[in-house]
Amino acid sequence: MILVNIHEAKTHFSKLINQAIAGEEVVIARDGTPLIKLTPYIEETRHRQGGQLSGLIQIREDFDDPLPEEYLNSFYGDQ
Fold this sequence. Notes:
Layout: E1 2-5, H1 6-11, H2 13-21, E2 26-30, E3 33-38, H3 69-76
Parallel strand pairs: 1-2
Antiparallel strand pairs: 2-3
């Protein structure tokens, strides 16, 4: 464990951050009394789950059928 006072922590902040990232326990103190532990931030990952819109959306049976000629012509013209 590394115990440093606030003044020393301000002077060597980048070095202390690197030590905390490397796994060392860094404690910042005032007049020798521990106040704060410097630890690396680890983002919490959330697992995706489906089904939130179940029953709210309906997909028609003909969803992937070819488009009618009049729609195709509006996009591509008469080719």
